[in-house]
Amino acid sequence: MSQDTLSDVLRGVRLRGAVFFYISGRGEWAAEAPASLELAPFLMRGVEHVMEYHVTTQGSCWAGIPGGPGVRMSTGDVAMFPHGDAHVVSSSAGLRGVLPETRWYAEATASEVPVRVAYNGADSPLARSSGSAPDTMIVCGFLGCDLRPFNPLIAALPRLLHLRASDGGSWIAQLMHQAVAESQGRRPGSEAMLARMSEMMFVDAVRRYTTDLPEESAGWLAGLRDKLVGRALALLHEQPAQAWTLDELGRRVGLSRSALHERFVQLIGVPPMQYLAHWRMQAAARMLLDTHATVATIALEVGYESEAAFARAFKRLVGKPPAAWRRERSAEVA
């Protein structure tokens, strides 16, 4: 397994994307989106969590969570909503839009991708362009991932993540134009291209956010950045099946048992062995969905000596035995 812990988690939670909207606005306008929990069944089958992001490709606008944080976006900026909050993108701060019926998203994406929506003087979400030159153009995309059994990344991100083009992200606007072209062209391989583009943008967003974290920050990303806790995380991810003890992990990292425990809990929020147990379940979940391996084989792969012990641990965290969970999730995707 890779020593790049962030990449390991992203593979484990099956990050994937696309479905694009091309929004143009002129004058005073506001586009409002419901919480992603309402959209997930319509936009991405078999996906537990959907994150929406917006890239300003022309002009400027505001993006924010009603009653929560908001930011002014310039050309090339990205606003992302990692926790799937309902939000508004508008010509100026404080405007509210007309919330479309959630089923509209399924109908719109079924007939045309990218979906083109134009707002002229706060028209309805179904309005089409009148041909007038827009003041602002935005590409909207969606990223899906698994939350269960274990996804430490999403909880470590803010409700609103703002990436400024002036801070080195100007390439994203060009990438999104290419993504829209791929989405519209529907050529062979387009789906894979779209997913990779969305993932590139998301990984860049997470890396830039992590780099800018204050030194006193806590959380999974802060732990990843910490030299000693980051090393411990890398070891647990590289060798999840190993019979780790706190003493052995501390020896490999260069800390005493008590010092490692204290530092790990301070940054990550749980003890190292509890983190390992959760990560083993996530690794197992991916194998259950992505391979035809038996439950007994998967149990051994993630460090359990018996299928029964693994099944008990899996059910305790997920709520269902591994075989039943696999059947249910496979049926959702089919």
Structure at a glance:
The chain is of the alpha+beta class and 334 residues long. It is built from 14 helices and 10 strands.
Q: Would you report the number of β strands?
A: 10
Rough outline: globular
Instruction: Please state the structural category.
Output: alpha+beta
Number of domains: 2
What are the secondary-structure elements, in order, as H or E?
A: HEEHEEEEEHEEHEHHHHHHHHHH
Strand content: 15-25%
Structure overview:
By secondary structure, this protein is α+β, with helices and mostly antiparallel strands. The protein has two domains: 5-211, no CATH class; 221-333, Orthogonal Bundle (Arc Repressor Mutant, subunit A). The chain has helices spanning 5-12, 36-43, 102-111, 152-156, 171-185, 190-211, 220-225, 227-238, 246-253, 257-268, 272-290, 295-301, 307-318, 322-333, and strands spanning 16-26, 30-33, 49-58, 61-64, 70-73, 78-81, 87-90, 115-120, 136-145, 161-163. The strands form two sheets. The chain has a six-stranded mixed beta sheet. Strands 2-7-4-5 form a four-stranded antiparallel beta sheet, with no helix packed on it. Strand 4 (61-64) and strand 5 (70-73) form a beta hairpin. Helix 5 packs antiparallel against helix 6. The protein is globular, with a radius of gyration of 22 Å. The protein starts with a helix and ends with a helix.
